[in-house]
Amino acid sequence: MDWEARTRAALCAARGVAHLHAAHGLAHGDIKSSNLLLRPDPDAAALSDYCLHQLFPPAPARPGSGAGAGGGGYRAPELVDARRPTLASDVYALGVLLLELLTGRSPAHHAASGSLDGSGSGALDLPRWVQSVVREEWTAEVFDAELVRAGSGAAEEEMVALLQVAMACVSTAPDARPGAQDVVRMVEEVIGGGRTTTEESDGTRGASEEERSRGPTP
């Protein structure tokens, strides 16, 4: 995926989460890359498997497995005790998804290997790894090498700006995370607003006209 495809996917994911939160007051509960479905229309990516946590009890967290417990690296820190997901924990998972798009690294791979470099040493999840790299002022090392090779100066600025949005989403304090609609607005600003409309900002973009005519999801 080139940079434009990744930003469109990020924007569609954010709009889907914002729509669930604003229109229905529901937490998705399982935001991850495998639940972001890409379509031929680049503006019509969609989130799947939403709100299944309403049907099934949460899986217990594994002792010592940290923020990635039971969620493949997407579980917010406050959910290590297997409590029900919240709107804030959705935003955390969305932030991890944005970090995946930026870094090319999979939280699920980290959860299986025990470290991001595959060495099996340490227990640093994807958000904390990114924080550690940025803290050492090696921000350029965070980004997927494929993006860096193909990117222009403008794209690099957008990558840094989207990284800031992602890091706000994965704040360890739930109250410090932006709302999903704020994330949509920030991502739109990152990509220049040229791909947006008022309707899209409400989180409804990505569904077809036929889907929108059906009314709210039960």
TrEMBL record:
From start to end residue, where is composition biased (Basic and acidic residues)? 207-218
Species name for this entry? Miscanthus lutarioriparius
Name the PANTHER family on file.
Answer: LEUCINE-RICH REPEAT RECEPTOR-LIKE PROTEIN KINASE FAMILY PROTEIN-RELATED, OS05G0588300 PROTEIN
Q: Which GO terms describe its molecular function?
A: ATP binding; protein kinase activity
What Pfam families does its record include? Pkinase
Q: Where is this region: Disordered?
A: 191-218
Q: Which InterPro entries match?
A: At_inactive_RLKs, Kinase-like_dom_sf, Prot_kinase_dom, Ser/Thr_kinase_AS
Protein's UniProt name: Protein kinase domain-containing protein
Residue limits of the Protein kinase domain? 1-191
